[in-house]
Amino acid sequence: MGQKYKRILLKLSGESLMGAQGYGIDAQRVNDYAEQIKEIAQSGVEIGIVIGGGNIFRGLSGAAKGVDRVKGDQMGMLATVINSLALSSALETVGQPAQVFTAINMFPIGEHYSKWKAIDAMKAGKVAIMAGGTGNPFFTTDTGSSLRGIEIEADVMLKGTRVDGIYTADPEKDPTATKFDKISYDEVYTRGLKVMDLTATAMCKENKLPIIVFDMDTKGNLKKVFDGEPIGTLVY
User: Fold this and answer.
1) Which of 29, 107, 193, 222 could form a disulfide with 36 if both were Cys (CB 3.0 to 4.6 A apart)?
2) Tens digit of each residue's pLDDT (9 = 90 or more) over 43-98
3) Which CATH number fits domain 2-235: 3.30.450.40, 3.30.160.390, 3.40.1190.20, 3.40.1160.10?
4) pLDDT digit string (tens) for 135-152?
5) Which contacts (CB < 8 Å, 24+ apart) does range 150-154 have?
């Protein structure tokens, strides 16, 4: 069942990169991610990656402290570039070629993103890391990953988080919360579940991009999801 997916979009949370530090980038966590990504890349699947920036800066929380929202979101975009460079470096270290693309022109930090360049890189066996969100303020990196996933014609979006799927309530706060094995986009919306923001969910629904939400912080889980093991929650 593993080769069900020829091309995937992996969405990683910026917060997860903090590891146990509580801020910034934890080298051990990034290396764990790189090992997991290399393992499935070696099986021949094409991988595109979008990383958040919440471990460094969030535009929305910055705006609450008086930072101009557009400048705050631009700071958040730059945070995703820092994370993308860290991950690409870790991938190269473990012997997995990777290339960073940026939504806004940032040569020579990364190549200016275009769908065709990213696909060419993936076809050449590189992991394409797409940084800078959508390049526009007021859009989250979830929307960025939905957009990139649809653009690169991925078969599925794998959304790595700290929890092992989607629950009826926040499992970290509510012990009675139960997990969904699968759930429709519409039900995510009507139940008001905080999976992704509305724009991102609507884009995936309109373009029929399924999402699997799973716990990326447990080593080995990425391969399990890829092999079709029933961990995580499928949104369809």
Assistant:
1) 222
2) 999 999 999 999 999 888 888 899 999 999 999 999 999 999 999 999 999 999 99
3) 3.40.1160.10
4) 999 999 999 999 999 999
5) 150/203, 150/204, 150/207, 150/209, 151/115, 151/118, 152/7, 152/9, 152/48, 152/115, 152/118, 152/119, 152/122, 152/128, 153/7, 153/119, 154/7, 154/8, 154/9, 154/48, 154/209
